[in-house]
């Protein structure tokens, strides 16, 4: 690999035409900074109000009220400082554009080897047909096939997954040439043939479509029956012979099979395709996806040893066949590419509803904040859709020489995927993907950047990769819990950006990492603020200045300005008004459930009470649930502590708001004074009630299977009513 790197750098030394361009924001930057300064000035006025107001009327305030006032001050200081940290992601955004035509003129087919890693872990949650569609899509990338290799890591050790991949290997001999000949997009056959507008109207397309349907039928039938057909056991006997009779998902030897060897004379030019299921034993920790990635790094280094590595989740197919060339425009640029360790693409989805019911897209993060991170030294590594330099992810520091690996026979590489290979080594520490964190990708990316490397964020006009978004609320909340928990663990670990990254990366990038690491602890202030606002409205205790008071101006300005800017930003990113409203609801639900549970689990883990676990998000939904998702009807359906918390908070907001309105109606003479004194609390609690409408529907009005379970509804009702009763009697 060292010789290959030297050849690439010297052979084109005279070609100085850049392969990519970086554009920084110029227009609107001054206006944004003025806006941010005005908002922060009003935030400071809010802090001043909390300090000054109790001093002016201290004789009328009880000790309990002063305690509430102090809590409100602390919470608003948190919100103000956190808002300031988040704005750091908008100070210096950059957008990158690539010139693949220049790359082609300069290199032609003389490109570095590319190894693609696709990881799966459970054939039930991650259906084999979906997995092989992802594999087929990357096998058909616009890339020299003799330089391309695709590795599927099956942590489930499933014969069904191997059977599906073997079938896909046969179909690839038709699919890959078809894609190259007719330049079809996307190159996932499932996505292509389900898209009525893109499919070619030709005999060739009809023939390939029929072959795909036949393959898909065989795979789906085997998946439903949970067994491989007898004829397949005979046809692919060499691969199936590696399974012991007593092998289980958590107890089996290494299984390694090269299904297509594109390194040898290949008349139809198909990339190399390799199946790997690393050894699993109950007595050895396998480190989840991070362990799978490290096993792939070692095994692939002895088979094809691609200088560049792309890793993908098994549900994230290649939607843009030129994505590899786009990434190489950055990594192979002679001037700036040498300092870039990895190129991260956004995480987009192909099953979003029109208004993104569960806010899965996180548009502003993908289209604004990550570009801001790129301007400060590079985006986070998010675990999928990322092109790496192999030697960098294996531990090389910026400025060191690249290391080479000897390519050997596949059979000799099985020991590299054994349970005991890493014992006493630096794998999972200084080499490969790091262990011990639910977001191993983020902490690995941070460590790479702290070794002197930069990263780049690339958002081509045509989305590079498309995945499967959660189709029910519980899936989304569980996924967000793992992310927030992992980010918070990073903040408290030896790799915390607060101290580990000091002097190694830019201050702006440190703030960017802190922004996401603080997701979990931000749950506590949000929960307390919403509870205090609603309960004090219920009790008749004013927490904000009177509506006509001059002190009300900063509160009103911050509320209106921040939300108006948020809406404008969301619409600029291609969202809809209803989509923005859905995203506000999801941020509320994340902060009062997922992030809160992630925060508590992290604290418990620090005290040795709990252990982290990796939860695989289901990629399929039942037919009725899928129909409700398409209609943008929120799916509950299961009992969950997170649903109990959300239900209790929702009912509490409803009870408090209803009680306050009834008090106004019963005391009509004093209604005007109450509205003036607690107008802000009426607005906040009323908005909480409105935003929770889908929750109330699921708890009280719906009859379908996706409604909130009755036990959760009853418990939430009793808890909320009990809290209101206690407050009323106090």
UniProtKB/TrEMBL annotation:
Signal peptide segment: none
Record membrane topology: Multi-pass membrane protein
Record's protein name: Cellulose synthase-like protein E1
Keywords for this protein: Cell wall biogenesis/degradation, Glycosyltransferase, Membrane, Transferase, Transmembrane, Transmembrane helix
InterPro entries the UniProt entry points to: Cellulose_synth (IPR005150), Nucleotide-diphossugar_trans (IPR029044)
Organism the protein comes from: Brassica napus
Transmembrane feature ranges: 30-52, 64-85, 551-575, 642-666, 678-696
Subcellular localization: Endomembrane system
Keyword hit for Transferase: yes
């Amino acid at each position: 690999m060292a010789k290959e790197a030297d050849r690439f750098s010297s052979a084109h030394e005279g070609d100085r035409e850049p392969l990519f361009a970086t554009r920084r924001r110029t227009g609107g930057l001054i206006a944004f900074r003025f806006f941010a300064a005005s908002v922060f000035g009003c935030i400071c006025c809010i802090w001043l109000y909390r300090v000054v107001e109790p001093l002016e009327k201290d004789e009328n305030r009880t000790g309990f009220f002063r305690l509430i006032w102090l809590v409100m001050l602390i919470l608003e200081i948190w919100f103000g400082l956190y808002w300031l940290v988040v704005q750091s992601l908008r100070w210096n955004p950059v957008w990158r554009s690539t010139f693949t035509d220049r790359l082609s003129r300069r290199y032609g087919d003389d490109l570095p080897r590319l190894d693609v890693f696709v990881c799966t872990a459970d054939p039930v949650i991650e259906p084999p047909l979906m997995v092989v569609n992802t594999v087929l899509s990357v096998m058909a990338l616009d890339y020299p096939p003799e330089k391309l290799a695709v590795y599927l890591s099956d942590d489930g050790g499933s014969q069904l997954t191997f059977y599906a991949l073997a079938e896909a290997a046969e179909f690839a001999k038709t699919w890959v040439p078809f894609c190259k000949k007719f330049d079809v997009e996307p190159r996932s056959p499932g996505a292509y043939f389900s898209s009525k507008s893109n499919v070619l109207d030709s005999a060739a397309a009809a023939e390939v479509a029929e072959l795909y349907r036949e393959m898909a039928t065989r795979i789906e039938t085997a998946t439903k029956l949970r067994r491989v057909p007898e004829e397949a056991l005979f046809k692919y006997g060499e691969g199936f012979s590696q399974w012991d009779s007593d092998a289980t998902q958590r107890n089996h030897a290494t299984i390694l099979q090269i299904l297509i060897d594109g390194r040898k004379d290949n008349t139809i030019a198909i990339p190399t395709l390799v199946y790997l299921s690393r050894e699993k034993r109950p007595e050895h920790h396998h480190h989840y996806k991070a362990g799978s990635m490290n096993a792939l790094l070692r095994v692939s280094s002895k088979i094809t040893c691609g200088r560049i590595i792309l890793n993908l989740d098994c549900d994230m197919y290649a939607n843009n066949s030129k994505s590899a060339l786009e990434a190489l425009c950055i990594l192979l640029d002679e001037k700036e590419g040498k300092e870039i360790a990895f190129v991260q693409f956004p995480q987009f989805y192909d099953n979003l509803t029109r208004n993104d019911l569960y806010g899965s897209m996180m548009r502003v993060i993908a289209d604004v904040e990550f570009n801001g991170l790129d301007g400060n030294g590079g985006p986070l590594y998010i675990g999928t859709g990322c092109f790496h330099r192999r030697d960098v992810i294996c531990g090389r520091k910026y400025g060191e020489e690249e290391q080479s690996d000897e390519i050997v026979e596949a059979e000799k590489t099985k020991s590299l995927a054994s349970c005991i290979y890493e014992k006493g080594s630096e794998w999972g520490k200084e080499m490969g993907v790091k262990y011990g964190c639910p977001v191993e990708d983020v902490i690995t990316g941070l460590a790479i950047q702290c070794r002197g490397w930069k990263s780049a964020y690339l958002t081509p006009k045509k989305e590079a990769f498309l995945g499967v978004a959660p189709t029910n609320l519980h899936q989304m909340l569980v996924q967000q819990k793992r992310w927030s928990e992992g980010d918070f663990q990073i903040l408290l670990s030896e790799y915390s950006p607060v101290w580990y990254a000091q002097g190694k990366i830019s201050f702006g990038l440190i703030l960017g990492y802190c922004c996401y690491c603080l997701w979990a602890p931000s749950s506590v202030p949000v929960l307390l603020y919403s509870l205090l606002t609603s309960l004090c409205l219920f009790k008749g205790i004013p927490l904000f200045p009177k509506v006509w008071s001059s002190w009300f101006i900063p509160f009103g300005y911050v509320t209106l300005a921040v939300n108006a800017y948020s809406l404008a930003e969301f619409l600029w990113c291609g969202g809809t008004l209803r989509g923005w409203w859905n995203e506000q609801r999801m941020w509320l639900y994340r902060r009062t459930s997922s992030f809160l549970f992630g925060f508590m689990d992290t604290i418990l883990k620090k005290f040795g009470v709990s252990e982290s676990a990796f939860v695989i998000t289901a990629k399929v939904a039942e037919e009725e649930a899928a129909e409700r998702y398409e209609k943008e009807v929120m799916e509950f359906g299961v009992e969950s502590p997170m649903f109990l918390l959300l239900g209790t908070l929702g009912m509490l907001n409803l009870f408090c708001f209803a009680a306050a309105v009834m008090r106004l109606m019963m005391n009509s003479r004093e209604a005007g004074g109450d509205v003036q004194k607690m107008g802000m609390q009426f607005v906040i609690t009323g908005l909480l009630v409105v935003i929770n409408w889908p929750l109330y529907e699921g708890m009280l009005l719906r009859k379908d299977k996706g409604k909130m379970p009755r036990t959760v509804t009853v418990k939430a009702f009793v808890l909320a009513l009990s809290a209101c009763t206690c407050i009323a009697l106090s």
